[in-house]
From TrEMBL:
Keywords: Signal. This is F5/8 type C domain-containing protein. Residues 33-172 form the F5/8 type C domain. Coiled coil: none annotated. It comes from the Bacteria. Pfam families: F5_F8_type_C (PF00754), Metallophos (PF00149). It comes from Streptomyces hydrogenans.
Length: 446
């Protein structure tokens, strides 16, 4: 605990006028000696309500946003027993930081750093603690400029994790107003193998439990929801026992395995999800959340002229500032299936409509790409593609790394935690151990 205190004065017989004069001199001296403390009251709080991310969470009730919500009884808590861990807040472009106040829960950091970054990748140290004992740490007199600030814990003070009641960042806000309409979405593809939680090697119950802990606004799937042939009986015996717990809040799309049903292509899929998967009477549909327009497509039938015309009409009607599309087959992938040209015509339509984000499954790994155009050329106005096929099916190896691929993870089951605002988006790939395996940059919608 960082304390700033002075010893109580001794009783004397000094005349009152001399005492008052001495006090005034003492206060003036302190203000000159400690300008950082004297100016602290004038600092402006710039972190409250800003988008936040973290390396992990203990469970969905202790999310990173709780440290910045201005409520003294809510907190962020990391997974237990693991170093290092971090908590990050987006302050907006070119924020200036002069003070950071941390209020720790019992699970505090013995050693940590306060750091700032312009891009979320390269960090500059503002303060260092090597003998923390919890309580309140008030770092004043700081000089830092950037968009992101993080508390990076390197040694726990207890056997638990790290936990902060609040992080207050003071200074001058960035050039843009705080994002509004923030919400979280969990996404995954290639989910329910034919196993249940009774088997310790069964992954989809674990990804489902993780998805529930994150507690998003809704869930979306990128196809191959049920293996191997997506029979209605298999949906009931496997998928329904895990991801079925939040079926009502799920917006799915089909994959190629949903077409293998002997009862007919997509028969089990449609029987299980019903109007959830067919809200507009087709296996493709769209919906809005905040300033986002989501387009759910059936990549098994990208040669269907009716779906293509529907997509063009839907995008022409859209009034939202950000656009995300999701379907099973990725145009670009470094996994076993590789690039799938069936998606290229759809990419061209989405790109022309200034879409921002594309989510896919099919290859059983995690991968993110830099913004690119339909021909695979890196460009700032391109679309960001994520492959998120680690929902529970057997992992695939990375085979041929594609241009513009920025990060690839295979063998670690998990989900995408997408954090979206009215103007921005970012995400984390979170493993079933609640650890963040990858954190993306924050992108601004086109």
């Amino acid at each position: 605990m960082r304390l700033y205190a002075s010893a109580p004065p001794r009783r004397t017989t000094t005349p009152l006028s001399l005492v008052l004069a001495a006090v005034l001199l003492l206060v003036g001296g302190l203000l000159l000696a400690l300008p950082d403390r004297a100016g602290a009251a004038a600092d402006t709080l710039i972190s409250q309500g800003r988008p936040a991310t973290s390396s992990s969470v203990e469970d969905g009730t202790f999310g990173p946003e709780k440290a910045f919500d201005g409520v003294s009884t809510t907190r962020w808590a990391s997974a237990e027993g693991v170093d290092p861990q971090w908590l990050r807040v987006d302050l907006g472009p070119s924020a200036t930081v002069s003070r950071v106040k941390l209020v720790w829960e019992v699970a505090h950091a013995k050693a940590y750093r306060v750091e700032i970054s312009a891009d979320g990748t390269t960090w500059t140290r503002l303060a260092t603690e090597t003998a923390g004992n919890g309580g309140t740490d008030d770092w004043t007199g700081l000089t830092g400029q950037g968009r992101f600030l993080r508390v990076y814990g390197t040694a726990r003070g207890t056997s638990y994790g790290y936990s902060l009641w609040s992080v207050e960042v003071y200074g001058t806000a960035g050039d843009t107003p705080p994002p509004t309409g923030a919400f979280t979405v969990v996404a995954a593809g290639d989910i329910a193998a034919q196993c249940t939680a009774s088997s310790s090697s069964c992954a989809h119950p674990k990804t489902a439990a993780l998805a529930q802990r994150i507690a998003p606004s809704f869930y979306l799937t990128m196809g191959d929801n049920q293996y191997d042939d997506a029979l209605i009986s298999d949906f009931r015996n496997y998928y329904d026992k895990s991801w079925g717990a939040f079926k009502a809040k799920t917006r799915p799309v089909p994959g190629n395995h949903e077409t293998y049903d002997p009862a007919g292509s997509l028969a089990g899929y449609k029987a299980y999800f019903g109007a959830i998967a067919y809200p507009q009477g087709k296996s493709y549909y769209s919906y809005d959340q905040g300033n986002w327009h989501f387009v759910a497509l059936d990549s098994n039938s990208f040669d269907d002229a009716a779906q293509i015309q529907w997509l063009k009409d839907d995008l022409a009607r859209n009034t939202k500032g950000c656009v995300a599309a999701y379907f099973h087959h990725p145009l670009y992938s470094s996994g076993g299936h590789g690039n799938d040209p069936v998606s290229k015509p759809v990419w061209k339509i989405l790109y022309a409509a200034k879409a921002d984000l594309v989510l896919n499954g099919h290859d059983h790994h995690y991968e993110r790409f830099a913004p690119q155009d339909p021909d695979g050329r890196a460009t700032a106005d391109g679309m960001v593609e994520i492959v998120g096929g680690m929902g529970g099916a057997e992992p695939y190896d990375i085979e041929t790394v594609q241009p513009n691929s920025q990060k690839r993870i295979s063998g670690t089951y998990g989900v995408l935690k997408l954090d979206l605002t009215d103007t921005t988006y970012t995400w984390q790939y979170v493993g079933t151990d609640d650890q963040v395996k990858d954190s993306a940059p924050t992108y601004t919608c086109h």
